[in-house]
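cron nightly-structures :: item 1 of 1
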Amino acid sequence: QVQLAESGGGLVQAGGSLRLSCAASGGIFSSYCMAWFRQAPGKEREFVTAISWSGSNTRYADSVKGRFTISRDNAKKMVYLQMHSLKPEDTAVYYCAADTDFYKVTVAASYWGQGTQVTVSS
């Protein structure tokens, strides 16, 4: 069992940047693959990005490639999402997720955070 808590969301103008953070507790952080998802009102939850145990393997949704970067610090038990060139269509609640399997964390992760709101204005 692992608990996840996101932070760093807020309101930004289009073209701006934000860094989201996810703090893990209650488990061995380095045993988990980590991911970020997002969900806008009236839309399905959408995969954003994932990172493997070691950080050597990453995956990004086409919609965020070149703009978002996922990273992790196993010593601090943290995962980050650096977002640049934000667009209004990036507006959503962003969720941190964890699983021991890299594929599973991209489609049906076992553990989820509470979410943090990101709003991008024109």
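cron nightly-structures :: done
The longest strand covers residues 18-25.
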